[in-house]
């Protein structure tokens, strides 16, 4: 692949994205050339402290409570039924008993009254409550769950296509949402806010529960989670995001008539997979279709997030538990000053990412516990052409515990707008379920030639993994003809540190955005071993760095294909990998420095490139 220097437009974009945040004492200028590596890292962590200092002053709400019972809410009885406790795993799940009263209108009325009074606290008391519609926050309102409050959101998708701002006819009354980093009109999330200021979702403790009932069967036996892809024979196999939707036109030219044959071929690829809902939406983005025409909702199968706040400022989520989310659990988008503190996340469904801040600025995650069916934390920043909100930047993650999940602290894969200045410290990747449902990888960065974007200034320190990570590799599937042999790179699971620049390349027809990954600094990682029949083991490989694969690129020539570069891994002990003969994998990387890195008892000090 021919390469060239970055063009001026790209350089200016990167410079703009590096602008410091007002109020932070340490800006990127402090990291200028000439500073020693240790000094630069110290200054980076000083910047992290500046981010945390932004949250010293708590949000303030009027001292008035609005009890939802005063507006007609009534508690219900809960019963146990057979459902899914995890994707594909049957078990007993709780749900409101038949005849439970719907509390949607009462909660909406309480929020409206609170807002009209100038703000305050809307209180959901102890008890079980059925809510057949979204809780929509307004400025200066704190929705608070008392100790022992259990809110069950309806498991009927139609209840989240009734109250949105946009009447889309047969598709329902929908809201502006973002689904896997693409904008659309879709079902409302269970808890939602758009363009609000000074909002909070809080609980008294972890007995304050928000329950999405993602694995609870409806009357027809289906669940929200089935929309990921059916797992049983039946008449509704077509109701899934992975199946060609007959509502989708036969050609993208039916929607965008001006496309050239070459553009149509690029967007549609060589099969009709682009007509599945999960690919149709990003195809609309690539084709430049405005959001007002990206209508999903009824007749489509894109599950909503549990909690989604878009274009909000001063956001607090604190002190509750969340279960059985249909899709991502928390998804703030284009928000400024987001505090996510002391939340217990327990949802083992498909795509149950715990916390996914996207295109947000100034975020603090502190004291949370994750038991996730997908990534515990996954930082996002737009996908395809939906990058108008810019990068995610200035994020601190600390004092958290992570058990099951695909990745612990993850950056990407949807990162077309860029991710920078992310700091993770004092984290226990506990991996308590290592024998049955292990954490696949702990520190994970993922992108590809479609998602592109930049990922830089990522700092990790002082993390422990008492039970290692997944001991079995999960090999990714390169494109046909790729220089990467099939079943040779375990980038989906098995490494403690994974930087994957060829993530799921077969998922995207358009691969025209080479990513740039640089300035990654990891220190103080301590990985424990678990007992196996072959002796103590901690992981499959310690480190996996898969840089961009130039073969995948299908855009205009020449292209900028940069290696992963300027990575330091210092003062770490990775335990004993299963693949001790090849403790790391490198492809298209430059200037990876290992300093006092112990793997299987051997200390490594080296500078690596490949």
Automatic annotation (TrEMBL):
Pfam families in the record: Glyco_hydro_28
Gene3D superfamilies found in the cross-reference section: Single-stranded right-handed beta-helix, Pectin lyase-like
UniProt keywords, alphabetically: Glycosidase, Hydrolase, Signal
GO molecular function: polygalacturonase activity
Matches recorded under InterPro entries: GH28_Enzymes, Glyco_hydro_28, Pectin_lyas_fold, Pectin_lyase_fold/virulence, TAT_signal
Signal sequence segment: 1-32
One BP annotation, GO: carbohydrate metabolic process
PANTHER family cross-referenced by the UniProt entry: PECTATE LYASE SUPERFAMILY PROTEIN DOMAIN-CONTAINING PROTEIN, PECTIN LYASE-RELATED
Stated family: Belongs to the glycosyl hydrolase 28 family.
UniProt-recorded name of the protein: Polygalacturonase
Organism, as annotated: Massilia yuzhufengensis
Organism taxonomic ancestry: Bacteria, Pseudomonadati, Pseudomonadota, Betaproteobacteria, Burkholderiales
